Structures are given as structure tokens and as C-alpha cells.
């Protein structure tokens, strides 16, 4: 498969859409669930068939890593087939594991590698090499593994795993499903009970999928809305087929674009509706967005539905900090929606945005300011002075900083703004949403004005 290269850039000039968006689409498979499906299938005994796997760059890196660790992974039509090795049975990789742009791949894999008795080395692209790893290496080192990172706790890092991992008892200092999952994955090959406490509930795909693979996971809810997760190791995973729902974080882009363009009327089929992922839908409804769920059902153990979206006049919103984990990747595109709303919006508690593929707090401010929107940061909150439907001047040049969500947010902004928006590079969209531009064009977005690559 082709791999993203930091030197092949794809600029795009985005012009206002001539009409509203119309049509019915499916978005690609959920990225979080896709990473986990490959990892858990590799840790299971037997053969797992995965339907709807996201074939984005981030997930393909995870597939490569699990192959390097001894799993057999192949594509059969549109299905992916994994012959697993079993917990504790992965083998030492004979080369560096390159996780590309993916924080989820790197953090979750650290948990697996820490509790296997061999050595490995992990790296990533320039974006991933700038992201903090201490949040996983600090707790995981307590299970007996040893990590040698660069001096500032960044990748590349060497991991000396242990075959006699101690179970961890850890309270997360930040709301992070990646850290929670890394600890649970390490616990699969530890001797005894692993306990992870999260002060705010984060996406629970790891807990759900472990149960699906036959591992008893106990969850208690704390009085202040947090959760404690218990897992008994060593655990045995039995191969079970997986169906991956459409990614609500990817759906966010066509959803916001349709809301901002009058006369839009679209349906997105089969979106994952796990309640720990639907903060954006709640927020857009609070803003007056015309969003209707149809055909709600359970598929592959996760709630899914079809979402009907119509162009809407939006009003400003005040988003509480405790909603952040349920929409953490959606803030850049929500900020775009707020720019076209009436009144000043306040998005609270966004500290974690500073450590994503880019500093998304700074990058979102730059994205909006370049197109004539007044926006400011107060502590960890972002305040956006909305200009009203169709009133954002546009004309900005956007630096996407190796960040797929920024590139897609800039495209949504450009589709609804007055003047063309100049996006420096759209290549990283392939990490999570291959053919995003093709799908938007299918809805009538008319994204064609590619500038010359330089
Ligand atoms: O566990 C996961 O699959 C993810 C968790 C989130 O990261 P954090 O755990 O850092 O919040 C999210 O931003 C990321 O895109 C996917
Ligand atoms: C933060 C993201 O992903 P990751 O942490 O896996 O790089 C994202 O997809 O927005």
C-alpha cells in the first residue's frame, strides 16, 4: 500500500460551494475501533474477519506493526482477515515500528509491547515525534517495562518489555482513552487485577471490544461521573468477527458543511452513535442545527444510525468542559461552525487540543483569524465571535501542520466563506478519511481547484 510521505504535498484552493450539499453517503470506518480491531485480533487465538475497517494511513500503520509482531493480516475483498498469535505470544520485531502520524497506534501499542518479553523500537513522522509519550511510559514503567525516549519524552523510543508484568493500579491525570487503553492492554499479560480510574468517562471501545473477544471487564461508575475499570490477567482472547461502524469524527465534516450551506439536505448512513462519541451532535443541536437520527440500531455491538442533516441558521453555544472527551477531535470543525453562528461561542476546557497532531488550539485560532473571524483563547477556553450565516469573509491562507482535522476544517470553512481559502496541504487527510474530497464532491461540493504542488 502507498504510504504518506512528508515531501509530497497536495495544496487546494477551496471556493464557496455553488449550491447546498445533497445526497446520501457512508463515511469510512471508525478509526478508534479499527486500530483496536487489528490489535485485539492479533492478540486473539484464531481467525478474525473485520468488516468495514478504515483503510486510512493511521490504521494501515497499525496493521504493519501487528504483522511485524507476528500476526498474519490480509485483505479478502473488502474484509480484513487476521490470524492472531495470542496474548504473550507476539514476537520481537526485526525492524523499527513506524506508527506514522498516529497517536492512538503509538500509545496503545506501547501497552502491548511493555508486557511482552522482547525489545522493540518505535518512531513516527515529524508530528508524532513531537507528541508527549510520558503519559503512557510513566505508568507502564511501573509494570516492570523500561522505556528509553529522547530526552524530552518524545519518540523515537526503545521499549524493553517484560514477560512478568505487574498489574497496574492507576488514576488517569488527564482524560485520555489512549492512556486508559494502553494500561488495559498491558494488563492482558500481567498476573493479577489491573485497575484504571478515569475522572471523566472517555470513549469505551477498548472495554467493549475486550468483552467482545471474551475478556471479562468490570466497570464501576463513581459518584462524580468518572469510571473505574477492572481487568483480570493473564487474559485469553478468542477470535470473533468485528463490524466497524462509520466514524462519527469523520462524519463531523460533511455534517458541519451541510449545516452551513443553505438548501443542503444530506443523509449519512451507518454512523457510530456510542454515547461517549456524540458530543458534537448534542452541541450542534444546541446551536439549532437540523439533525435527525433515523433507523437507529445495534451493529457489531455498537449503536449506529442514519443522520439526516439540513442547512440551518446556527446560534452561539457554551460547551461545558466535561463534554470535551466525547468530541475531542471535533473542536476545529465546531469552531468553524461557531464562526458562522450568531453571537459569541465559548468552548471550555480544551487543554488536550495542544498535544494532538498539531497544537490544535493555536492552529484553529490561526485558521479562523486568517479568514476574518475574531477569536481568542482565555486559559483553556476558546471564544469565537460568530459572524452569522454566510458572513465569514474567507480569503485565508491555512497552514495545516500535518494535521488531517485542520485540513478538513479549512475545507469546510472555504466551502461556506466569501473568498477562496488556500489550504497548504491536504495529503494528511488520508490518515483518517481517504477520499474525503471525492465524497464531498459526490454531495456537490465541487472541490477541484488544486494549486500546483511546490
Ligand atoms: O483512544 C482513541 O482511539 C482516541 C482517543 C483520543 O485521544 P486521547 O486519548 O489522547 O484523548 C482521540 O483524540 C484520538 O483521535 C483517538
Ligand atoms: C488526535 C487524533 O488522532 P491520534 O491521536 O490517533 O493521532 C485525531 O484523529 O484527531
From TrEMBL:
EC number: 2.5.1.19
Positions that bind 3-phosphoshikimate: 31-32, 36, 176, 178, 329, 356
GO cellular component, one term: cytoplasm
InterPro entries hit by this protein: Enolpyruvate_Tfrase_dom, Enolpyruvate_Tfrase_sf, EPSP_synthase, EPSP_synthase_CS, RNA3'P_cycl/enolpyr_Trfase_a/b
Residue sites binding phosphoenolpyruvate per the record: 31, 103, 131, 178, 360, 405
NCBIfam families named in the record: aroA
Protein name from the UniProt record: 3-phosphoshikimate 1-carboxyvinyltransferase
Organism: Neoasaia chiangmaiensis
Organism taxonomic ancestry: Bacteria, Pseudomonadati, Pseudomonadota, Alphaproteobacteria, Acetobacterales
Amino acid at each position: 500500500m502507498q504510504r504518506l510521505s512528508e515531501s509530497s504535498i497536495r495544496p487546494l484552493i477551496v471556493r464557496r460551494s455553488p449550491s447546498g450539499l445533497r445526497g446520501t453517503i457512508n463515511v469510512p470506518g471508525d478509526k478508534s475501533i479499527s486500530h483496536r480491531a487489528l490489535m485485539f485480533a492479533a492478540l486473539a487465538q484464531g481467525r478474525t474477519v473485520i468488516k468495514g475497517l478504515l483503510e486510512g494511513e493511521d490504521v494501515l500503520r497499525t496493521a504493519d506493526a501487528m504483522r511485524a509482531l507476528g500476526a498474519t493480516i490480509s485483505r479478502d475483498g473488502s474484509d480484513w482477515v487476521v490470524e492472531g498469535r495470542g496474548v504473550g505470544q507476539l514476537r520481537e520485531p526485526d525492524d523499527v515500528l513506524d506508527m506514522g502520524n498516529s497517536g492512538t497506534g503509538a500509545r496503545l501499542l506501547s501497552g502491548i509491547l511493555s508486557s511482552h518479553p522482547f525489545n522493540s523500537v518505535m518512531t513516527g513522522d515529524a508530528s508524532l515525534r513531537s507528541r508527549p509519550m510520558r503519559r503512557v511510559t510513566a505508568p507502564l514503567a511501573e509494570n516492570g517495562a523500561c522505556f528509553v525516549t529522547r530526552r524530552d519524552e518524545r519518540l523515537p523510543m526503545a521499549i524493553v518489555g517484560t514477560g512478568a508484568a505487574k498489574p497496574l493500579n492507576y488514576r488517569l491525570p488527564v482524560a485520555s482513552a489512549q492512556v486508559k487503553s494502553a494500561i488495559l492492554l498491558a494488563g492482558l499479560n500481567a498476573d493479577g487485577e489491573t485497575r484504571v480510574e478515569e475522572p471523566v468517562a472517555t470513549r469505551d471501545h477498548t472495554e467493549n471490544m475486550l468483552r467482545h473477544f471474551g475478556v471479562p471487564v468490570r466497570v464501576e461508575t463513581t459518584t462524580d461521573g468518572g469510571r473505574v475499570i477492572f481487568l483480570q490477567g493473564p487474559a485469553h482472547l478468542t477470535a470473533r468477527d468485528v463490524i466497524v461502524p462509520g466514524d462519527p469524527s469523520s462524519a463531523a465534516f460533511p455534517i458541519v458543511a451541510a449545516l452551513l450551506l443553505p438548501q443542503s439536505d444530506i443523509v449519512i448512513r451507518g454512523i457510530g452513535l456510542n454515547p461517549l462519541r456524540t458530543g458534537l451532535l448534542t452541541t450542534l443541536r444546541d446551536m439549532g442545527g437540523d439533525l435527525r437520527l433515523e433507523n437507529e440500531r445495534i451493529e457489531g455491538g455498537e449503536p449506529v444510525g442514519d443522520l439526516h442533516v439540513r442547512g440551518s441558521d446556527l446560534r452561539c453555544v457554551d460547551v461545558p468542559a466535561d463534554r470535551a472527551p466525547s468530541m475531542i477531535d471535533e473542536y476545529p470543525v465546531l469552531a468553524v461552525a461557531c464562526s458562522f453562528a450568531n453571537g459569541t461561542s465559548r468552548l471550555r476546557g480544551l487543554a488536550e487540543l495542544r498535544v494532538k497532531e498539531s497544537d490544535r488550539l493555536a492552529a484553529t485560532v490561526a485558521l479562523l483569524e486568517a479568514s476574518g473571524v475574531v477569536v481568542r483563547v482565555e486559559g483553556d477556553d476558546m471564544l469565537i465571535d460568530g459572524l452569522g450565516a454566510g458572513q465569514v469573509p474567507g480569503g485565508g491562507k491555512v497552514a495545516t501542520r500535518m494535521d488531517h482535522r485542520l485540513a478538513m476544517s479549512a475545507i469546510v470553512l472555504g466551502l461556506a466563506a466569501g473568498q477562496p481559502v488556500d489550504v497548504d496541504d491536504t495529503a494528511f487527510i488520508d490518515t483518517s478519511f481517504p477520499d474525503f474530497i471525492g465524497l464531498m464532491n459526490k454531495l456537490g461540493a465541487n472541490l477541484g481547484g488544486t494549486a500546483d504542488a511546490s
